[in-house]
């Protein structure tokens, strides 16, 4: 098919691979036969993370052998200068997964020349597939989604992501700031799903001091394509070293940015 759009092909492939990987993760989640370990304090790791990432990497390499790959659990393939790179979190929400909490997802993003071209998140327990393609909108199981119509933080819910880099005092200060501006803070343990929920109007905002690219790129495109606001995560060395992030409904953008004053954020 000479006239086939390569980005559309990658978009469709990412959805198929996310479903297959999600089915593996879901099966292993319910049979509870996996081992649990730690990469660091509060940084869970299960053997299923590796199994799922290996499956995703193999499928993408079969279809797109020249593309680069960045995964949370495995070493990346070398990228050509200016080439396509897949950015993958096989199980976002591993702590939930390890503890038997059914709130986790597969996250697959495709980046080309500084732009997120494809973003797919699959929640295998709820069978919810979030998918976005740059310039083509965002969808949940094929139906277009959009952020909430919130216009005030006093009626908003904001997810506040946790990571060890910022430390407890900064995290608690972030919750304090959100609360003082009247919003209700949440933490559910999956940044990718938290951001996807902003795109779908289930949350009014999401903030975190630092995220890695595999945790948020797919969901960042979802928010953008759904019509919400998301900060410039790929600025600087965001792809390789991560960045802070703010994502929200357009109606609370200015208030949320003012409330949290995230250091290092690129708006």
Give a description of the structure:
This protein has helices at residues 6-31, 47-63, 94-98, 168-180, 191-199, 213-226, 238-241, 253-260; strands at 36-40, 43-46, 68-71, 84-92, 105-112, 115-123, 128-133, 137-140, 143-144, 157-160, 184-186, 205-211, 229-230, 243-248. It folds into two domains: 6-144, Fructose-1,6-Bisphosphatase, subunit A, domain 1 (Fructose-1,6-Bisphosphatase, Chain A, domain 1, 2-Layer Sandwich); 153-260, D-Maltodextrin-Binding Protein, domain 2, CATH 3.40.190. Helices cover 36% and strands 27% of the residues. It is globular. The protein contains eight helices and 14 strands. By secondary structure, it is α+β, with helices and mostly antiparallel strands.
Name the features.
five-stranded mixed β-sheet; 267 residues; Fructose-1,6-Bisphosphatase, Chain A, domain 1; 36% helix; D-Maltodextrin-Binding Protein, domain 2; alpha+beta; 8 helices; seven-stranded mixed β-sheet
CATH architecture of the largest domain: 2-Layer Sandwich
Q: Extract low-pLDDT stretches.
A: none
**Any idea of the CATH class of the largest domain?**
Alpha Beta
Helix content: 25-40%
Whole-number count of domains? 2
Q: At the third CATH level, what is the topology name of the largest domain?
A: Fructose-1,6-Bisphosphatase, Chain A, domain 1
Gyration radius over CA: 17 Å
CATH superfamily of the largest domain: Fructose-1,6-Bisphosphatase, subunit A, domain 1
**Which strand-content bin applies to the residues?**
25-35%
Instruction: Describe the sheet with the most strands.
Output: 7 strands, mixed
pLDDT averaged residue by residue: 92
Instruction: Determine the number of helices (DSSP H or I, runs of at least 4 residues).
Output: 8
